[in-house]
Amino acid sequence: MKNVLAEMESVMSQNNNELLNTTPLKAQHTGTDAKKHFFSLGTIEHIDITKNPAIVDVVDQMANMAFSARDLNRAADIYDRMLKETDCGVILTLAGSLISAGLKKVIVDMIKNNMVDAIVSTGANIVDQDFFEALGFKHYIAEEKLKSGLFDNELREHAIDRIYDTLIDEEELRICDEATQKAFDEMEPGPHSSREFIRALGKQLEDNGGPKCADSIIYECYKRQIPIFGPAFNDCSAGFGLVYHAVNRNYDPARTATWDGGKDFYELTQLKIKNPNTGIFMIGGGVPKNFTQDIVVCAEVLGHDAPMHKYAIQVTVADVRDGALSSSTLKEASSWGKVSTAFEQMVFSEATLAVPLIVGYAYHKGSWKARTGRKWNELLENATVNA
Length: 387
What we know:
three-stranded antiparallel β-sheet, alpha/beta, single chain, 18 helices, globular, Deoxyhypusine Synthase
């Protein structure tokens, strides 16, 4: 085994430049001119809920409707209740393709107005989409015919990635991969939480004059000391950056920054221990949902009788009947000791429809005006590992 590892290190050392390839090898037609006709419909624009005070009246009227409308009204009311309790730490979880779909400004406005204290997200939303746009790149509106899937081979030949009705330039995404590596190269060797890696991306933006677009989740959180966790951090552009970074250092632990998933769990649990009153706003499901719910149990494992999350809302289109985590109800989570059933609400709706209404309602109700930023990053930077 030692001989195999030595041989691998030798190969990596000799071929680092080849391994850091940013050219898609399965594409035949690369470059801006070859693919610009696919982007002719323009770019995805991010919805601005701050300009629509009438959202409050619309959502209030939903209280006397039925089905998903009434569920959405109750979810909006629960979110407003979270914000009214100034000692309630609000954790936002993100899963699914949200930033590429036009929800970035909604989330940035939540950050700017103290409507969220921590974020737990898939890596794709934070790195492949938000950081990607902060580097100056765009998500594009796809022609209707491309949704059929009949043209995906042609898209691949032009190094264009498709997310249902949205397009991304893969060559630009490779630049994003490389940018993460450069940020990680500046970090101290040793184990780091995903929060620390994502903060390094915010620092890189700061050191280079800020984002090359109007808004950035990573950058706003960096400035306001709001932690962002990516519990599946290597499942995105940052994963490629981690590989690039480690290969360049031949996986030498004395020179390599590494991702420590256990440290992620410990840090987020510390927030629950130090701020027992919490509410969670979950967009989609997946790893961010369960990771955030589980910090109640993790606190118990560490000997702290932390209360269940007092408030919880989830927006999802997942089907509860398949037994999967993304679709499991919040009442089900209560059986695990994670979520209180007093103020919980599932909203079975696609996020781009429901989230602007829920957040817009809370924004224009104005309960956030009495809140101040918790700056939880500072708390975690000063924390020592002590159960």
